[in-house]
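Researcher: Checking consistency across runs. Here is LIM zinc-binding domain-containing protein again:
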Amino acid sequence: MPFKPPEVFRCPKCSKPVYAAEEVLGAGQKWHKMCFTCGLCKKMLESTTVAEHEGLVYCKQCYGRKFGPKGYGFGGGAGCLSMDAGEHLGNKDVAMSNKPNYQAPPGSQ
């Protein structure tokens, strides 16, 4: 039986090989411990404090700031939030409406 070398995983942040002694599992990938940091505040992350968006990792606080609800009086209830359609998250349908999208039955108008 021929020798098969072990699979080498590459760190998503620095693209260098990650060996078993230095690996941290998070967001479905293997990272170096020093590379597993928040994309905004650079805080060291753990498996319980990580939030992932489009392959990038953030601490839960920065993730909420960047991708959470926006508007004046954040946390004050639904009446204070803006009508953000989510364009920054890749939502293409910006025409938001509360009108039903079905036809009315015949004779109702």
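Researcher: Does this match what you'd expect to see?
Model: One thing to look at in this run: DSSP finds one helix and six strands in the chain.
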